[in-house]
Amino acid sequence: MSKPDLPEDQPPGAERRSRPGSDWLDPVRFDAHGLVAAIAQDADSGRVLMIAWVNAEALRETAASGFAVYWSRSRGRLWRKGEESGHRQQVVELRLDCDGDAVLYRVRQAGGIACHTGRESCFYRQLEGGDWKSVDPVLKDPELIYKR
What we know:
Low-confidence stretches: 1-21
Helix content: under 10%
Strand order of the largest sheet: 2-1-6-5
Number of helices: 2
Largest sheet: 4 strands, mixed
């Protein structure tokens, strides 16, 4: 795959989105519902925190604000991570996979909790002996996180 042409005043490694008039979303392959999978990964530890869905609007807002925005399929609207819990994700880096059908949000997770169950990661269950076992601790009771 060839790299896009960059103006000569751009440093090596400059991203396409910094070029005026270019649409950095062009290589993203959204599905029939206008969504693409987004993986949130801790920028420091490398641990996968969660997976969610994003549309073009969520990606644009994420890039502009520096904080993770997703598309909530259940709510049918944008979901700004941490809007209820306070556990925002500051996006350090956005990456696109080779096929353009998944994005990676490298994040710094506020409060160390990404999962609505009060755990660090949504991937807290491990297959052991044919059953899914919870192997990561609850860091904070969800009842205390989501006060209504």
